[in-house]
């Protein structure tokens, strides 16, 4: 059985160490594979096309039109000729030019631009969300790998001690019951090794799933290597940028309302053939020019209603921003406190680790001479396992907290 576990240990160690990947590798793959980020990128490109379309609308619009009509009248029966002209034909080339002000056009283009900036900011937040999720899973998988490696070390250590204890038991230095008691501890750690292997495989598969990778092999992960980033200026934070963009959208919306009540002038012109064939139809070639003028005078007070709606939206925006500002500052302060606490705990755990490792070494020497109770050895091993597991879990917790803090610091 011991050699069976040793074979599993060798094969898995060889497999995971054949190649290693970094956190940046998975972040880049996740970013490239994300359909959401691609969708948002395409939305920005689409908005750019919309702004070009708006400018195109205010350029001269040229259309070719043609229409023909024949309404026969026989023995006085038929449509009134004065209305239908009996038969008509036209083929015209028309031009329509709107004379809206450049400020009006710019305001409409600005509305599209602000929408693009909003989508771009949403894209940055979505990318940050994806980075946080992938990093969190990477840290979890890395923690499982560290636990696996530790369990491998423990099983190797216990196998060595088991060989020595077996010899001492045969020499009647220790009782058979002492050997069996130690053997139970060894078997428990071998099972723990298998369980940790399964846990790493599950966590690693989940990492591939989040990243969008279809791969069933298992690669050893390098240390995440993440550190606390400096807190960005709130005015430049992507989480506050949306509130600024919303404010600019409301200002732009007010401008669009104002322009809707400005006078509008269109110039019209057409030229071509237009005839009812009543007299000398070959002479019915010509042209016409004209204009249209619109001046809004009264609309039942809709303008004030739209202003009021915009004011309500601004009030809502300010309320959300103030509430988020409080939450943001509280979240940052809480995460910094938690990180400080885990770092202090890690320092104390390292101190305890030194004592635990020293005790294991001392017990190993006493075991060779038969001056150690097996119960004391097992107790020392269990204490070592507990403190080592606590260090691994605390270190992973600290990395997860740093990941959360870095999420907000952009």
What key attributes describe this structure?
about 400 residues; alpha+beta; Outer membrane efflux proteins (OEP); 4-stranded antiparallel sheet; elongated
What features would you describe in this structure?
Helices cover 70% and strands 12% of the residues. With 410 residues, it is an alpha+beta fold. It has a single domain (2-58, 100-261, 296-408), classed as Up-down Bundle (Outer membrane efflux proteins (OEP)), CATH 1.20.1600.10. The strands form 2 sheets. It has a 4-stranded antiparallel beta sheet with strand order 2-3-5-6, with no helix packed on it. It is elongated, with a radius of gyration of 39 Å.
- Computed over alpha carbons, the radius of gyration is 39 Å
Beta-strand level of the residues, as a percent range? 5-15%
The amount of helix comes to 55-70%
Shape: elongated
* Distance between the first and last residues' Cα: 53 Å
Largest sheet data: 4 strands, antiparallel
Query: How is the CATH topology named?
Result: Outer membrane efflux proteins (OEP)
**Average pLDDT value?**
86
Which spans of ≥5 residues are poorly predicted at pLDDT below 50?
A: 1-17
CATH class: Mainly Alpha
The run of helices and strands is HEHHEHEHHEHEEHH
| CATH homologous superfamily annotation | Outer membrane efflux proteins (OEP)
CATH architecture type: Up-down Bundle
User: How many separate domains make up the residues?
Assistant: 1
DSSP E strands, number: 6
Secondary-structure blueprint:
Blueprint: H1 2-17, E1 20-21, H2 23-33, H3 35-57, E2 61-70, H4 81-84, E3 87-98, H5 102-170, H6 176-211, E4 220-221, H7 238-260, E5 264-275, E6 285-294, H8 302-369, H9 374-408
């Amino acid at each position: 059985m011991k050699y069976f576990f040793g074979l599993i240990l060798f094969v898995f160690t060889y497999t995971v160490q054949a190649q290693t990947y970094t956190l940046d590798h998975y972040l880049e793959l996740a970013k490239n594979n994300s359909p959401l980020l691609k969708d948002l990128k395409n939305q920005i490109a689409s908005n750019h096309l919309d702004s070009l379309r708006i400018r195109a609308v205010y350029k001269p619009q040229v259309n070719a039109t043609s229409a023909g009509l024949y309404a026969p009248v026989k023995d006085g029966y038929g449509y009134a000729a004065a209305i239908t002209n009996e038969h008509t034909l036209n083929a015209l080339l028309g031009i329509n030019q709107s004379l809206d002000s450049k400020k009006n056009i710019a305001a409409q283009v600005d509305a599209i631009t602000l929408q693009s900036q909003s989508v771009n900011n949403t894209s940055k937040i979505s990318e940050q969300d994806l980075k946080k999720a992938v990093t969190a899973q990477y840290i979890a998988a890395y923690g499982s790998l560290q636990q696996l490696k530790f369990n491998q070390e423990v099983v190797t250590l216990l196998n060595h001690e088991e060989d020595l204890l077996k010899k001492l038991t045969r020499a009647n230095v220790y009782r058979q019951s002492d050997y069996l008691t130690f053997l139970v501890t060894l078997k428990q750690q071998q099972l723990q090794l298998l369980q940790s292997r399964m846990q790493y495989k599950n966590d690693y598969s989940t990492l591939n799933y989040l990243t969008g990778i279809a791969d069933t092999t298992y690669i050893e992960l390098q240390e995440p290597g993440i550190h606390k980033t400096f807190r960005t200026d709130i005015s430049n934070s992507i989480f506050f940028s949306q509130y600024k963009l919303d404010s600019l959208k409301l200002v732009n919306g007010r401008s669009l309302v104002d322009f809707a009540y400005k006078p509008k002038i269109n110039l019209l012109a057409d030229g071509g053939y237009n005839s009812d064939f009543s007299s000398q139809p070959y002479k019915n070639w010509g042209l016409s020019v004209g204009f249209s003028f619109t001046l809004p005078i009264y609309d039942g007070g809709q303008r004030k209603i739209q202003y009021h709606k915009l004011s309500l939206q601004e009030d809502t925006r300010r309320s959300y921003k103030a509430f988020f500002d409080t939450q943001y500052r509280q979240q940052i302060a809480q995460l910094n406190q938690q990180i400080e606490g885990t770092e202090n705990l890690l320092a104390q755990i390292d101190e305890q680790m030194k004592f635990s490792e020293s005790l294991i070494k001392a017990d190993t020497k006493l075991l060779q001479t038969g001056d150690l109770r097996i119960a004391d050895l097992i107790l020392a091993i269990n204490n070592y396992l507990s403190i080592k597991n606590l260090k691994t879990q605390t270190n992973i917790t600290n990395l997860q907290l740093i990941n959360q803090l870095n999420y907000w610091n952009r």
